[in-house]
Amino acid sequence: MTQTKEQxxxxxxxxxxxxxxxxxxxxxxxHRGHPxxxxxxxxxxxxGCTRVHVVLGARAAAVxxxxxxxxxxxxxxxxxxxENPDWERGMGSSLCVGxxxxxxxxxxxxxxxxxxxxxxxxxxxxxxxxxxxxxxSLVSATYAGVRGHPVLLGADHWAGVMATATGDRxxxxxxxxxxxxxxxxxxxxxxxPYDIDTEADLRHLE
Length: 206
Prior knowledge:
Helix content is 30%, strand content 22%. The chain has helices spanning 2-7, 36-46, 60-70, 91-102, 122-129, 158-164, 172-177, and strands spanning 8-14, 30-31, 34-35, 52-56, 79-83, 109-114, 138-143, 146-154, 183-186. Residues 10-179 form the MobA-like NTP transferase domain.
């Protein structure tokens, strides 16, 4: 199990600017007394990812400052913050920056999660991470049979994902092309895959 934990790195995409939320960075939205970025990092760590890379973008300096003030990274030696200067181009660019940052770490897979999905916690992440077999693995959570996050991308797929990740599609195009290779893991009983995109979605935050 320890070897698996070391081989699967967590990759948190937290660069969104919250355009439909009045320009509030999603990473800084409060949930249960802490910013969403803290909840997402904790979930990845609880799922067994000893290394977590966090891609920042909108108001990155403010997010770093808040994380430092809250001690979010204290004791998290394997947690690295990576900035995406082109975050406004969409999630695809952040995914590319994140995967590129993991390339030299020795990780054989990335467990990719989104900062604006606080309803997806450690239990769903653990299920998907447990689907890892080797660098060829592709694993996706499903909710009532519909694919969602988190997604595990084996390192053998990273170049292909980065070549096709554009706009807000992330790995969607690549996964569609390799659908037959994806191991699906139902997580609807342990997680809720809502996004925090609009003012109406803020009702999910506590």
